[in-house]
Specification:
Layout (H helix, E strand, L loop, with lengths): L10 H21 L10 H33 L1
Helix pairs in contact: 1-2
């Protein structure tokens, strides 16, 4: 008799991490941290921070989607 073990994390954990990443990305966009950048680098700092926060939202949504898909497969 063999026991099958899961190779990855639990699906609910993937969904939780994905939701957290989405919230962090949205919180970064809402708080607008680029307004504190001084000097001539305001545009570059703003562009990088917007890109980083949007990528956090996209990656978080992808991780949550994969976790939800894995949970549906296990049912």
């Amino acid at each position: 008799m063999s026991t099958r073990t899961s190779a990855g994390p639990a699906p609910w954990l993937l969904v939780a991490v994905g939701v957290f990443l989405v919230l962090v990305g949205l919180g970064t966009l809402v708080s607008a941290p680029w307004r504190y950048a001084g000097g001539e680098s305001v545009v570059a700092v703003a562009a990088l921070q917007i890109l980083g926060s949007l990528s956090s939202v996209v990656i978080g949504a992808g991780v949550a989607w994969l976790g939800a898909g894995e949970a549906r497969e296990k049912q």
